Amino acid sequence: MIYMRKLPQTMYLVDFVCYHPPTHLQVPTEYFLKGFHHYITLSASSVEFPRKILERSGLGEETCLSEGLHAIPPNQSLALARKETEEVMFINPKDIGILVVNCSLFSITPSLCDIIINKYKLRNNVKSFTLGGMGCSARVIAVDLAKGALQVHRNTCAIVLSTENLTLRAYHGNNKSMMITSCLFRIGGAAILLSNKNKDKRQAKYKLVQMVRTHHGSDDEAYKSVSHHEDEAGELGVSLSKSIMRAAGETLKTNITTLGPLVLPFGEQLRFLYSMVNKKLFKNPKTRMYIPDFKLAFEHFCIHAGGRGIIDEVEKNLKLYPVHVEASRMTLHRFGNTSSSTIWYELAYIEAKGRMRKNDRCNSAVWIVLKNVKPYFANGGKCNPWEDCIHRYHV
Ligand SMILES: CC(C)(COP(=O)(O)OP(=O)(O)OC[C@H]1O[C@@H](n2cnc3c(N)ncnc32)[C@H](O)[C@@H]1OP(=O)(O)O)[C@@H](O)C(=O)NCCC(=O)NCCSC(=O)CC(=O)O
């Protein structure tokens, strides 16, 4: 009995839903650019910049912005920002013991967790955590936090709510790195139900098998790659530095080194080890680090849809095929960069395509599929954000 209590708890992903924004919130390119012209005093040289970025971004014509950002000039009131968050975050409140909410750019009192607890009248011993400022990486951090809490609290359900809120963050200046953020980021969110209850095993879709987190905050360049600050003219904005690709590449390398031994076939591990020893120990300048074939470890890849450039880079570095990055590209096209929730739209895409088969493995936390997941239309009308458009994808 004592031995049993010490066993690590298995964490199941019972189900998840993604916010499906209403069509009146859509921002087709021309409409978006018209709004941009109204609320930004663009200098002559930068007038064409947002158009250029939008055309090359990988975003389609149906991505959405919050109600406040449709107004001309934008209505950036706290009330509308709060309304946005309340609309995006929704749960089924039954039996929740742990609540984790992550939202990078919107932090208020009462907290985002408090809003949910009050709205759904959650029980008073619920363990709640609100994470802020962590960008898209919070998608892993929030699940990891829930996992840690589920190790301590047995026979418990946890909800993770991942979202971003841009209403208060529309940028009104000429700084290109900050304009890019406005061009790429869109409204979105996801709710993920996790459980360590034995009885949930039967209905759960996925089981967590590995979780890897690495932190590159000690590297100054990585630290500054996404940053909220004032521009040269004193306008607040969130800048994306050009070095983000390099930072993403470095993080990928560290993750590969950590995750490789846990998921790769033995032969791939050996090849990787051989190249590492050659390069690091024998300092052989001719040896290039071997990038293991992760296609042998995963059937599905959910790569953060941060921008076309990011997806291109990961596809190239990991030598993936177009089908492996299809869910990321289609998510970027249909929903835009929704920050920490993009990977859940991607998982929903793979499900909607009917590609999720029993025993398949998905990154980025490593999930194993517990049963064939039926696409939405075979699922009794269960909510999938792709349900009205999956037949039109891929594009
Ligand atoms: C923005 C792009 C779509 C542009 O694609 P292109 O293939 O056209 O790239 P390009 O290099 O030719 O760039 C076109 C123009 O944009 C400029 N440009 C590109 N990136 C820039 C940047 N970060 N800051 C300032 N300017 C930039 C180039 O100088 C050029 O300007 P000129 O024409 O004047 O020479 C792509 O670079 C991309 O996807 N970048 C990654 C976006 C990103 O960082 N996403 C992660 C967000 S963070 C995130 O998602 C996590 C979170 O939520 O926190």
TrEMBL record:
UniProt record, GO biological process: fatty acid biosynthetic process
Give the Gene Ontology MF terms in alphabetical order. acyltransferase activity, transferring groups other than amino-acyl groups
Kindly state one GO CC term assigned in the UniProt record.
membrane
Species, as recorded:
Papaver nudicaule
- Kindly indicate whether the keyword Acyltransferase belongs to this entry: yes
Q: Where is the Chalcone/stilbene synthase C-terminal domain?
A: 301-359
Q: What is this protein called?
A: 3-ketoacyl-CoA synthase
Q: Which InterPro entries match?
A: 3-ktacl-CoA_syn, Chalcone/stilbene_synt_C, FAE1_typ3_polyketide_synth, Thiolase-like
